[in-house]
Amino acid sequence: MTPPLLQEIKEMLVEELMLQVTAAEISDEMPLFGPEGLGLDSVDALQLVVALEKRFGLKMSDGEAAKGILSSVSTMAAAITASQPGA
Amino acid sequence: MRLLPSFMKSILITGANGGIGQACARAFLADHPDNHVFLACRHGRAGAEAVVEAFPDRARVVTLDVTSAGSWDKAVAEVMAVTGRVDVLVNNAGAHQDGLLAVMPMEHWDEVIATCLTGTFLGCRAVLKIMMGQRTGRIINVASLSALLAPAGQTNYAAAKAGVVALTQSLAKETARAGITVNAICPGYIRTEALGNDPAALAELAKRVPARRLGTPEEVAGLVLYLAGEPAGYVTGSVIKMDGGIL
Predict the structure, then answer these.
(1) Disulfide-capable partner of A16 in A32, A51, B71, B81 (CB 3.0 to 4.6 Å)?
(2) Is the ipTM of this complex over 0.85?
(3) B234: annotated active-site residue
(4) pLDDT category of residue B39 using cuts at 50, 70 and 90
(5) In this predicted structure, what is the pLDDT of residue A1?
(6) Between residues 157 and 176 of chain B, which touch chain A (CB distance below 8 Å)?
(7) DSSP notation for B16-68
(8) Is B130 in contact with B77 (CB distance < 8 Å)?
């Protein structure tokens, strides 16, 4: 069973980016960008940055760091967990 | 038919002291009792303040220099402090410095590009992340018929407004997925302070228009209201001219 945070991120991806796949079809390590993965583009990335800040309070000011965080559902979950108070 | 859906209530209009800006503000305020309008002005606020006097609970003048990113941040923060959202941005501020290019002072070029084009860019940038977070928003850029006609003596203004048209079309592609529409309107001769008050000159101008009259600020406001409303949800990246048939 998928942990709640990973599931929430997958559902956010589908909802916010209006993806034509279900949350269940997105694996934890699937690359979000590029032909091997979900195939998101830079417009999706900006939308994702806004959604992550709004929903999880995750701020990404550094472009390089954002690139790493937005690699997969797992990397986003790790960044969200690390940004929580007491982490 | 009510044009604005219930979630639309926070509207920011630049160049709001001018005839078109005031007419837009009044149109939004009259359209729905939940609408709040922020009239952004740099110099001269008498016209905008008259609108606030008529709608003191829902209209407010904000100070904005559209050419300054910092000024945009402050103005948008003021809007957010009052309503917590930005549903509609009308980029209406503009400036003319007409003259032949061969003798055009650099500052006339810079001023017009800064106000018309950079101002529009900064305005869009200032509200975009907010609108993306809302997953809805309407941006209406007031360009000009000059963007399409490119008359002599207006190289700076025509280039700036053509830039606004291209910016609109490009940005619309970036924001469509986020539920944000971006459109431009190109008014022709509209009866505002920019055309002066000389009846003979205005009549002469009207003769150049196939409709044989000048447009009114209220007609421009009607188009802006349409583009801000629910029925225009699929209209984005569009450039709509309203010129009485000139082009």
Answers:
(1) A51
(2) no
(3) no
(4) very high
(5) 60
(6) 174-175
(7) TTSHHHHHHHHHHHHH-TT-EEEEEESS--HHHHHHHHHSTTTEEEEE--TT-
(8) no
Residue among B238, B227, B244 at smallest CA distance from B87: B227
Tell me the pLDDT band of A87, cut-offs 50, 70 and 90: low
Per residue in A20-35, pLDDT (tens digit) is: 999 999 999 999 998 8
SS (H, E, C) B92-145: CCCCCCCECHHHCCHHHHHHHHHHHHHHHHHHHHHHHHHHHHHCCEEEEEECCC
When the pLDDT of each residue in chain B is averaged and rounded to a whole number, the result is 95
* Sole residue written with tokens 């001023």: B111
Gap between the Cα atoms of B239 and B141, Å rounded: 9
Tokens of A3: 């942990």
Q: Residues of B16-28 as b/e, b for ≥16 C-beta within 10 angstroms?
A: bbbbbbbbbbbbb
**Minimal CA separation from B177 to chain A, in Å:** 7
**Token reading at B200:** 């003979």
Residue A6 predicted with pLDDT over 70: yes
Cα angle A14-A44-A4, degrees, rounded to a multiple of 5? 35
Structure tokens, B182:
């971006």
Residue A9 is predicted with a pLDDT of: 97
Task: Characterize B187-196 residue by residue with b for buried, 16 or more Cβ atoms within 10 angstroms of its Cβ, and e for exposed.
Answer: bbbbbbeeee
The three-class DSSP label of residue A36 is coil
B11 touches B28 (CB < 8 A): yes
pTM recorded for the entire structure: 0.92
